[in-house]
Amino acid sequence: MEVKEAIHKAKNNNQIAFKFLLDTYWNDVYAFQLKRTMNENDAEDITIQTFSKAFDKIDTYNDDYKFKTWLITISKNIHIDLVRKQKKTINNTSKDNEDHYFDIIDDSPTPEDKIITEQNLANLLRNIKKLKPHYQEVINLRYFQELSYKEISVELKEPINNVKVKLLRAKKLLAEIIIKS
């Protein structure tokens, strides 16, 4: 399959085309982010977000530009947004005047927070159970058992890129279920 053909098929929601594009460009986007972030986990998270956003917005892709350039631009913008959020958080928590004492923030959840968290978790688990079993399994392994992609790959006896695509698809379907409910 050629890239242009894969893009055309992906615009028609062809999962094999999405997988082809992910396999073809994963290393390029990941390497780009690894140079920027100097952190494997951050690079991987941003790369996943990049493909998720790109696949959601594939209809907006302009054939006049290279697909790789489009992906890298999306990836760069996601990274910039994350850095801005981090800076904003740091600026909001710091004090300009040294005469002020620093308040120690109690991060422990209040009883109300605990109840809300339990209710949200219960709702999330109910929504996860609406997914097909193979999607439930990959979400469970990644987010509840906190396995790496490599460990999930070994567990499921599937290539790591299949795991990434399956997880990406599971998250997208779960988001649709949550929005509907």
TrEMBL record:
Origin superkingdom: Bacteria
| Residue ranges occupied by any RNA polymerase sigma-70 region domain in the UniProt entry | 23-88
User: Where does the signal peptide begin and end?
Assistant: none
- InterPro entries (alphabetical): RNA_pol_sigma-70-like, RNA_pol_sigma-70_dom, RNA_pol_sigma70_r2, RNA_pol_sigma70_r4_t2, RNA_pol_sigma_r2, RNA_pol_sigma_r3/r4-like, WH-like_DNA-bd_sf
- Which keywords does this Swiss-Prot/TrEMBL entry list? Sigma factor, Transcription, Transcription regulation
Q: Residues in domain RNA polymerase sigma factor 70 region 4 type? A: 124-174
Per UniProt, what is one GO molecular function of this protein? DNA binding
Tell me the Gene Ontology biological-process terms attached to this UniProt entry.
DNA-templated transcription initiation
- The reply on keyword Transcription is yes
Zinc as UniProt keyword = no
Gene3D superfamilies attached here? 1.10.1740.10, Winged helix-like DNA-binding domain superfamily/Winged helix DNA-binding domain (1.10.10.10)
Q: Which family does it belong to?
A: Belongs to the sigma-70 factor family. ECF subfamily.
Name under which the protein is recorded: RNA polymerase sigma-70 factor, ECF subfamily
State the organism of origin: Winogradskyella thalassocola
